[in-house]
Amino acid sequence: MPEDSLPFWQDRLGGRRETRFGEARLALEGPDGEGIALVGTTDGRAPWTGEGLPAGSAVRGLHSVTLTLRDARPMVDLLAALGYREDGREGPWTRMRIAGNGADALDLHEDRDAPPARQGAGSVHHIAFSVPDRAAQDAVRQGFVDLGLRPTPPIDRDYFQSVYVRTPGGILFELATEEPGFARDEPPEALGRVLRLPRQHAHLRPRLIRSLQPLPGLAMEDPAGGPA
User: Fold this and answer.
1) What span, in angstroms and rounded, lies between the C-alpha atoms of 107 and 39?
2) Which keywords label this protein (predicted)?
């Protein structure tokens, strides 16, 4: 988001101001203790102006992801093999970047005393990387194999194909294809109006309806009566 919008967000959400790699940030804590930051930077992506937010203060998109590792070197080497380049170092931080759509940076935080991560509310299960199609996914998957890693076979998630691999630092990566996409079972202009579920989760719809917070304009029941 624009750097001059950070005071607006601090008034709205609280948090503390900090700087990383020359970028002003507003560090926040989510409801389950997860760390979130709003980053002030130049970004050409269209703003998300829902709920009456002024365009000059609205979020543009994902900026980066932080990975905490006891030893960052193996992750640096792995990301370099994937096409990332080192874009800066600052104390315990190393930024890796790849050409992309703005969500193209990974910040590696080396902390040799970091405790093991625990799954649960507020935790991040995996980091997903987009690939255009199965051919690109197969090529990257083979690169993991060549590095001695053990990626899964492609797994059909209805809207995309997934490959998972456990990295040397223990962090789980996913390669997700852009095909067939979320418009496979409804037109693009209808996206976001009905709760759609992949087949593997269709039987959970009643439970999910009870547990998910309703959103304005979102139908929780599938009007077609099918497993979508």
Assistant:
1) 13
2) Lyase
Given a contact cutoff of 8 angstroms between Cβ atoms, the answer to whether 82 and 130 are in contact is no
Give the pLDDT confidence score for residue 20 in this predicted structure: 96
pLDDT band for position 49 (50/70/90)?
confident
Rounded to two decimals, what is the model's pTM? Answer: 0.88
Sign of CA dihedral 133, 134, 139, 143: positive
Distance CA 141, CA 174 (A): 10
For residue 9, what are the CA distances in angstroms to 34, 44, 88, 146?
A: 18, 19, 27, 45
Residue of 67, 103, 107 lying closest to 89 (CA atoms) = 107
- At a CB cut-off of 8 Å and minimum separation 6, what does 118 contact? none
Question: Would you kindly state where each structural domain of the chain is located, as residue ranges?
Answer: 1-61, 192-228
* Radius of gyration of the CA atoms of the chain, in A: 20
- pLDDT above 70 covers a percentage of the chain that reads 97
Tokens representing 222 are 């599938």
Quickly list DSSP for 198-222: -GGGGGGHHHHHHHSPP-TT-BSS-
- CATH number (1.10.3980.10, 3.10.180.10, 3.40.50.720, 3.40.50.620) of 1-61 reads 3.10.180.10
